[in-house]
């Protein structure tokens, strides 16, 4: 069975219309509106043993006839199956099954509840008419008034001279006023003709035809327009059209008018089958009036294909027409900071003890720098046999890569073989794990001499640790103490003649204390003769296992200078690394703090550090404060918050500052208003472009009407990305 695309639906759409998650909020939790009185009418006390089609009648007084018209008065209740009628006076006509009511009439069914002055309904055919009606729709959670409600068939309701809203009907913040509203309950769709959208009784939009889902079902049509603005492109107005092509694939076309640049055309196709899922999007600006570049485009393709239970094929391809595309057409610091775009095709498969992958990969470089080598292809085979009866763990890995495509660096082929054996000796309180790794690498370079290079190196390491535990605060908490020693040795081999295809120096971190190689990739194997020592402590709650506090301190002790280097870098000297300190914990149930520091014990200074504080309480007040520093490189601070001002208003903001150069990197300030039936968000963003001089401004506005949809740009996504904990 084909799964439907998982998405949330636009509740109102224009001119024949739609639902697309690429332009919508995620599922929204709304405040509860007061339940309309019509929806809260008391049900009929119907005997449980009656057949569903039997007509049950109660009244203070009644005159019943086997045929013809029966009359009832005073607290009249009539029910059949899922239909219930309450009225001051009513009549029932046999055998036609027609019930009529007057005076405080309430009628309910699976689809709607109505309160009116007069009703005539055919219980046999499920058709009828109500006058001067106040109604509530069960499917759409909407309500309103109508001069005339006609139930034309069990699944088709027509309302004349009607209003529709999801707000309290007494004083709605917004309403849709239409000459005719038709509800197709089977198709879960409503249509309105000659409709006017009013905000606080002020007409803001006239729609000759309007269609809206009664549920979260998807359907084709125009989505609400999207409006935004920034300095680079000016006013941006998009009018997406959504095609619900099938339950498992759809298409959204989005023409966008950029006031400074021209008309931009975009499209996104999505699909989901039992074996395939993915998206393909393309955006084209045929003529850019603000630059000398035309036919500017962006594309992004993602596909995941399941070839079997353990086999898959992934495709990712992203590209732009020119290096300045994101600088000119992006609207965030993150977008303008993109330096390369990846294209990759990867096949993966596995067995019980082995795995295999093949990769084709290259990049489009946007910053004018050196492009990474393309991997055409990379083949990787790993083998992990079951643990031996004597406790030995074995691992073998083989990789072949053809590095090509570089016009400035050496290209070539690399074959790497790695075997590893280890064994862990452990008790509940201690462990020792020795390991031995052997790596052999062959290179065939595409230079004038077709140079052949080989390298073989062993690495030995011993990891060991102790576990101490005690109860504190009369057993309410458990504290652990975990000292750890890690020794590793790799002999020196001159590797200066080996090109660097994929290696780089790892940044020092706490986890790096227990790594055998200080380089990533396979082109550099560091000569190592060092001991890492650390100690950690944790405080945990034994009731739920929650970690309340954790702190670690560690350092590397080198017994030799490190001679293996990357090109144009000096050998590392010194007998010890910086002292690394990490701590994280709860100050209280609402506040959590984490910090990392790198202490130079010789210079008696902090070379790098970071502190982050996160606060969030039951009132959804959020505050994040951060500071980061790298000696002689940068100092930065960031602050973000979300603060409810009252039950409806919330202030939101984020700020990031470069303290070293005394400049703001990005500032976002916004506000959100929420009632039980509509929301609005507005945000302004100022950010630094990649030239480190020019700044851009962007404004985001979003209006969401419960039951109709959202109008505007992705303000919610912006605020969620910038304010950790914002909901």
Secondary structure layout plus pairing:
Blueprint: E1 13-14, E2 56-58, E3 61-63, E4 68-80, E5 83-94, E6 98-108, E7 112-122, E8 127-137, E9 142-153, E10 156-164, E11 174-184, E12 189-199, E13 202-213, E14 221-222, E15 226-230, E16 234-238, E17 241-246, E18 249-258, E19 262-272, E20 276-287, E21 294-306, E22 312-320, H1 325-329, H2 333-336, E23 340-350, E24 354-365, E25 374-383, E26 392-404, E27 412-423, E28 425-426, E29 430-445, E30 452-466, E31 468-472, E32 477-490, E33 528-540, E34 547-558, E35 579-588, E36 591-600, E37 605-616, E38 622-630, E39 634-644, E40 649-658, E41 663-674, E42 678-688, E43 695-705, E44 709-712, H3 715-722
Antiparallel strand pairs: 1-13, 2-4, 3-4, 4-5, 5-6, 6-7, 7-8, 8-9, 9-10, 10-11, 11-12, 12-13, 14-17, 15-16, 15-43, 16-18, 17-18, 18-19, 19-20, 20-21, 21-22, 22-23, 23-24, 24-25, 25-26, 26-27, 27-29, 28-29, 29-30, 30-32, 31-32, 32-33, 33-34, 34-35, 35-36, 36-37, 37-38, 38-39, 39-40, 40-41, ...
Describe what this molecule looks like in 3D.
- It is found in: Cell outer membrane.
- It comes from Thiothrix litoralis.
- Pfam families: LptD, LptD_2, LptD_N.
- Residues 295-649 form the LptD C-terminal domain.
- With 727 residues, the chain is mostly beta strands.
- The protein contains 3 helices and 44 strands.
- It has a 26-stranded antiparallel β-barrel. Strands 1, 2, 3, 4, 5, 6, 7, 8, 9, 10, 11, 12 and 13 form a 13-stranded antiparallel β-sheet that branches.
- It is elongated, with a radius of gyration of 34 Å.
- The protein starts with 12 loop residues before the first strand and ends in a 5-residue tail after the last helix.
């Amino acid at each position: 069975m084909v799964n439907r695309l998982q998405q949330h639906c636009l509740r109102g759409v224009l001119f024949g219309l739609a639902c697309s998650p690429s332009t919508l909020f995620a599922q929204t939790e709304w405040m509860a509106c007061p339940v309309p009185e019509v929806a809260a009418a008391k049900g009929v006390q119907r005997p449980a043993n009656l057949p569903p089609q039997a007509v049950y009648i109660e009244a203070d007084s009644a005159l019943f006839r086997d045929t013809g018209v029966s009359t009832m008065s005073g607290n009249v209740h009539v029910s059949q199956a899922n239909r219930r009628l309450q009225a001051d006076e009513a009549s029932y006509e046999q055998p036609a099954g027609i019930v009529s009511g007057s005076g405080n009439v309430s009628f309910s069914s699976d689809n709607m509840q109505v309160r009116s002055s007069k009703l005539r309904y055919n219980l046999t055919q499920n058709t009828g008419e109500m006058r001067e009606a106040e109604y509530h729709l069960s499917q759409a959670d909407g309500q309103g008034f109508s001069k005339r409600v006609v139930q034309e068939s069990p699944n088709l309701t027509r309302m004349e001279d009607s209003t529709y809203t999801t707000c309290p009907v007494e004083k709605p913040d917004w309403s849709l006023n239409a000459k005719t509203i038709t509800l197709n309950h089977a198709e879960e769709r409503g249509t309105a003709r000659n409709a006017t959208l009013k905000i606080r009784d002020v007409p803001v939009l006239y729609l000759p035809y309007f269609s809206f889902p009664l549920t979260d079902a998807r359907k084709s049509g125009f989505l609400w327009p999207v409006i935004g603005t920034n300095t680079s492109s000016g006013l941006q107005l998009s009018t997406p059209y959504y095609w619900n092509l099938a339950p498992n694939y759809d298409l959204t076309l989005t023409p966008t008018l950029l006031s400074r640049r021209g008309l931009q055309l975009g499209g996104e196709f999505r699909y989901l089958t039992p074996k395939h899922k993915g998206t393909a999007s393309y955006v084209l600006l045929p003529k850019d009036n603000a630059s000398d570049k035309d036919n500017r485009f962006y594309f992004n393709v993602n596909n995941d294909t399941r070839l079997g239970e353990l086999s898959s094929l992934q495709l990712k391809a992203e590209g732009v027409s020119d290096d300045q595309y994101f600088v000119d057409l992006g609207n965030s610091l993150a977008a303008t900071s993109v330096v390369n775009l990846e294209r990759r095709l990867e096949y993966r498969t596995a067995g019980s003890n082995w795995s295999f992958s093949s990769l084709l990969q290259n990049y489009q470089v946007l910053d004018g720098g050196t492009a990474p080598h393309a991997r055409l292809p990379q083949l990787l085979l790993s083998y992990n046999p079951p643990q031996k009866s004597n406790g030995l763990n074995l691992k073998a890995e083989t990789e072949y890569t053809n590095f090509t495509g570089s016009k400035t660096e050496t290209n070539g082929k690399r074959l790497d073989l790695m075997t590893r054996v280890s064994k862990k000796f452990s008790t509940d309180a201690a462990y020792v794990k020795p390991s031995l790794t052997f790596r052999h690498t062959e290179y065939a370079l595409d230079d004038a001499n077709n140079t052949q290079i080989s390298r073989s190196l062993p690495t030995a390491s011993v990891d060991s640790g102790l576990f101490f535990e005690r109860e504190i605060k009369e057993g309410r908490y458990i504290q652990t103490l975990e000292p750890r020693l890690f020794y590793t040795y790799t002999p020196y081999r001159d590797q200066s003649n080996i090109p660097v295809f994929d290696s780089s120096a790892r940044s020092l971190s706490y986890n790096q204390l227990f790594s055998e190689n200080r380089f990533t990739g396979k082109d550099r194997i560091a000569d190592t003769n060092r001991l890492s020592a650390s100690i950690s402590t944790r405080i945990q709650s034994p009731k739920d296992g929650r970690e309340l506090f954790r702190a670690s301190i560690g350092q590397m002790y080198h017994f030799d200078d490190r001679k293996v280097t990357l090109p144009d870098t000096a050998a590392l000297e010194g007998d010890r690394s910086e002292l690394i300190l990490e701590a994280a914990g709860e100050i209280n149930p609402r506040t959590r703090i984490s910090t990392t520091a790198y202490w130079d014990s010789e210079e008696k200074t902090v070379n790098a550090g970071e502190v982050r504080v996160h606060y969030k309480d039951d009132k959804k007040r959020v505050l994040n404060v951060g500071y980061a520093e790298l000696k002689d490189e940068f100092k930065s601070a960031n602050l973000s918050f979300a603060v409810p001002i009252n039950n409806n208003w919330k202030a939101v903001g984020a700020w990031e500052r470069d303290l070293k150069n005394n400049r703001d990197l990005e500032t976002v300030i916004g506000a959100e208003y929420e009632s039980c039936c509509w929301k609005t968000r507005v945000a302004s963003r100022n950010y630094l472009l990649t030239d480190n001089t020019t700044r851009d401004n962007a404004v985001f506005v979003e209006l969401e009407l419960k039951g109709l949809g959202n109008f505007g740009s992705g303000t919610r996504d912006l605020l969620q990305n910038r304010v950790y904990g914002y909901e």
